[in-house]
Amino acid sequence: MRRVVYPAPAMNRSHPSDLPETHLPDLRFVPTESILPHEQHDPQRLEPLVRKIREESALKNPPVVTVLSGNGTPDARYVVLDGANRSTAARAAGFPHMVVQVVQYDDRHVRLTTWNHALSSYPHAELEPALGHIAGLRCARTDRLHARAMLARREALAWIHFDDDAVLALQGGTNLQERNALLNEVVDTYRVHGRFYRVEGDGLRQARSRHSDVTALAVFPHFEPAEILELAKSGDRLPAGITRHLVRWRALRINVPIERLADTKHSLESKNEWLAEWVRERLAMRQVRYYEEPTVLFDE
């Protein structure tokens, strides 16, 4: 078969000499113990991920974090915005340090949005009774419009739209921590049952058009950054797969050697000196590319 090679499309790529310094990602080595997740990690993925991170030669995509306290001090603490499984795996692997990308949570280029969960093969007749066993959770039959309004006013933790067109508003809890605990129990109820998909939007029909096995759609509220930080600081965790952080100028394919993360002989300061020089070398060799527009990759 004759191979046809198509010309690559032109893209708005900037060379290092054109790259605004403010767009360079803030990459740092930080102690793994200083990184706090704000969401649950996936326990089923942890052991394979620990094994994978030990076997791989380089860290490709660093977790994205924001400073919780003590920026620039040895006692600084960070909250993971994206990459909870990677940072948890690095800690489980015994690495003293992790490379992260530090962003300012109030930066206009960092945006917090929400994923909803499209549930696979979990019919209404089974899910509603299962939710009814959660202590402190109230399930109220309503319509989609009212459920949306209740969620916007935070009168509901979430709402669920079933394929028989029934809608349940889930209520309970008197503060952030209590509501979060209930939300974890709700997600655990269907997470252990089977597969679910993270989707945008609150339309069940749209979710089913992409995943034909979907029988229900769980819709979650929009969270504020302050809530994320408060939960992380208190040691609470949101269910995995609800928050979504969109970060402009995300650092990808940095390929820092894993041995640098695992190294226990060199200090944090010396590792960061090495990292700064490593970035300078790549800039000098024109190995850094900056894309202004959103980009779709086909080799992940």
N to C succession of SSEs: EEEHEEEHEEEHEHEEHEHEHEEHHE
Helix percentage: 25-40%
Question: How many individual β-strands?
Answer: 17
Q: Give the end-to-end Cα distance, rounded to a whole number of Å.
A: 26 Å
Q: What is the quaternary state of this protein? A: single chain
> Any idea how many domains?
2
What CATH architecture label of the largest domain applies? Alpha-Beta Complex
Indicate the CATH topology of the largest domain. Conserved hypothetical protein from pyrococcus furiosus pfu- 392566-001, ParB domain
Helix tally equals 9
Q: What percent strand?
A: 25-35%
- Give start-end ranges of low-pLDDT stretches: 1-17
Short description:
This protein is an alpha+beta fold and about 300 residues long. The chain has 9 helices and 17 strands. The protein folds into 2 domains: about 15-110 and about 245-290, Conserved hypothetical protein from pyrococcus furiosus pfu- 392566-001, ParB domain (Alpha-Beta Complex); about 115-220, Conserved hypothetical protein from pyrococcus furiosus pfu- 392566-001, domain 2.
Description:
The protein is of the alpha+beta class and 300 residues long. It has 2 domains: 13-111 and 247-291, Conserved hypothetical protein from pyrococcus furiosus pfu- 392566-001, ParB domain, CATH 3.90.1530; 116-219, Conserved hypothetical protein from pyrococcus furiosus pfu- 392566-001, domain 2 (2-Layer Sandwich). Helix content is 32%, strand content 25%. The protein has helices spanning 43-55, 84-92, 124-132, 144-152, 176-191, 204-210, 225-234, 258-262, 268-284; strands at residues 13-14, 26-31, 35-37, 58-59, 64-69, 77-82, 97-103, 110-114, 116-120, 138-142, 158-162, 167-171, 196-199, 214-219, 243-247, 256-257, 290-291. The protein has a 6-stranded antiparallel sheet with strand order 10-12-11-14-9-13, sandwiched between helices.
